[in-house]
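Researcher: Next entry in the queue.
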Amino acid sequence: MRQAHAEDARTEARRIVSALLGEERPTAGALLADARPVLGEERTGRCLDLALGAALTRRSAELSALAALVVGTRDLGPEWWRRVRGGKLPAPDEVLATAVAIEPWTDLTALEMLAAWIADDAADALWGAPVAEVDLNSWQAEDRFALPPGVRAGQRLVVHFDAGGRLDAVVTWRADDELGSNLDFNSLRYSRPAEAQWSWGVAAGLGPHPLPGEDPDPYAREVDPRAAGILRDWALRHGATEEQLGESWRRVGDVVSAIERVDWMWRSGEWFGWWRGASALVDDSGYLPYRLEELAAG
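Model: Structure for this entry, 298 residues:
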């Protein structure tokens, strides 16, 4: 059942990618070809540099952010990159050049930060600036924020819940003759850049995603055979098939492909430990021995 849900998500993601980017099977090469006429050679080159500098297990996330930037720039125009903002926000071009994190996105990479920024700006252009932010980890609908002055019963207010994500809150009278609000979860929606970011990552998967200018090929690096054996054996004991894992794990590309095929996120919680070990193997992390110990202990 879980694997069926994973395939449903990929099918929907491929549909959205096709609608937004015209790619039936998204690849890094096709995405870069889409980016060059929209972002220009210089910006595309800088985005490529940032993607090349990321860990291989993060590469898909960086490319997904690039997909958001392509769709967002088509919607908002190239002037979005040059627009200087007030306060602490520089122009997006400056963020791309320096890769320095700024509030409120300091926990994101530069490309993810820009993707969140353009997704929110596209949402504001479509639905107006939100009056508040809510956390949808709680599904409480009533009175989640202070109402702005001058609102009327029946009025719908736009609320922010995620980068590019919006929903409406309906102003209503309460029993004490005070105004309150109810979140309308049926109105939940995302801007096109946010949809592009999610769908490209799901449809394209973890990879491998070879990029121009890589020498040597990072996916061709040989992996530690002992660690590979431990991770393969654990996966087989916990429900993965030989077909999903592939014939052998000799090189990084073999491991990346296997991680993608096993759909570990749709399995039981103990698979998170396996992912940590497999990602350490892919990224040649010094934490690999500790990740294998954690897996054995779990």
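Model: Strands lie at 132-133, 156-162, 165-173, 179-190.
Researcher: Noted, moving on.
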